[in-house]
């Protein structure tokens, strides 16, 4: 299953390590340092130029990628919940 992060970027559920609210998590000095380090090492992918609201950490083929999204973490979690509820429904024959 896949999660749409915005601007036609999708990632597989199994690749997602975490989804984080940018405003809440960057309060931490450790998180700011982590993101700064990843940006310096070209591990961050900006989905578009709109105001960033969340970031998604993924491991794809053994490589870490961080997607910066204009969508809120709540919106992304709702998408996951919606997709999982659709998949869990039984279809009558």
Distance between the termini: 23 Å
Read across the widest sheet, the strand sequence of neighbours is 3-5-6-4
**Number of DSSP E strands:** 6
Q: How much of the residues is beta strand, in percent?
A: 25-35%
Write the layout of secondary structure elements.
Elements: E1 2-6, E2 9-12, E3 16-21, H1 22-25, H2 29-40, E4 44-46, E5 54-60, E6 63-69, H3 73-88
Description:
The protein has 93 residues and is an alpha+beta fold. The protein has one domain (2-73). Helix content is 34%, strand content 34%. It is built from three helices and six strands; from the N terminus they run βββααβββα. The chain has helices at residues 22-25, 29-40, 73-88, and strands spanning 2-6, 9-12, 16-21, 44-46, 54-60, 63-69. The strands form two sheets. Strands 3-5-6-4 form a four-stranded mixed β-sheet. A two-stranded antiparallel sheet has the order 1-2. The longest helix is centred in the last third of the chain and has 16 residues, at 73-88. The two termini are 23 Å apart.
